[in-house]
Methyltransferase domain-containing protein
Amino acid sequence: MGSAISDYYKNGRATHLRVLSSMFEEDEMPIAHLFRSEQEMPQLEKRALTLVRGRVLDVGAGAGCHALALQEHGFEVKAIDVSPLSCDVMKARGIEDVECVNLFDTQLQSKFDTILLLMNGTGIAGKLSRLPLLLNRLKELMTEGAQILIDSSDLKYIYENEDGSMDIDLGGNYYGEVDYQMVYKNVKGDSFDWLYVDPTLLTASCEQCGLKCEIIEKGEHYDYLAQITVTK
């Protein structure tokens, strides 16, 4: 993805970014979408930006569209991503505080008033069993009274029949656990796990971690925006 973002920034275009998965047919990600303006963002993302307060951490910032929009509104934003090429592009686009770092790296120790994880932010957990690990790590980075703004989707619609019944193997892995691999030109990334989580399970996981989860808004296709705060 970093290679595609870099090409698009330099040339105004990029060839197809292929998205492979053992669970779905091959798909493509439009790179231009990663450079969208605030006006071009989906409703859930626009709503999230209206809820931001204080110092912001943008996790998995990509090409920096959210960080850039917030910075233009006067917020102090730190954008992080694991891709050096993505971070180079964000710096070139004018984002003032960019760091190439993994969320779980101990060198990231600052605290923030808002932590932003958009474009299916729960995906960073990878597996449902690791969701508490993600939430507890985010909790470590929160100031008193801080919030996490995170979105995801409930993939149950993929398994839903016309009569409303569900073709889900209850004895198998959680249906929101997906594997992906990105391919751009001759660059093939490593396969990685990505988690989509339904609102009920996210709320339950938050409660286990001493956090309160409120579903702020639901989208048109099983997607939703959640606001997470520390339980008082």
The longest strand covers residues 142-153. The mean pLDDT is 93.
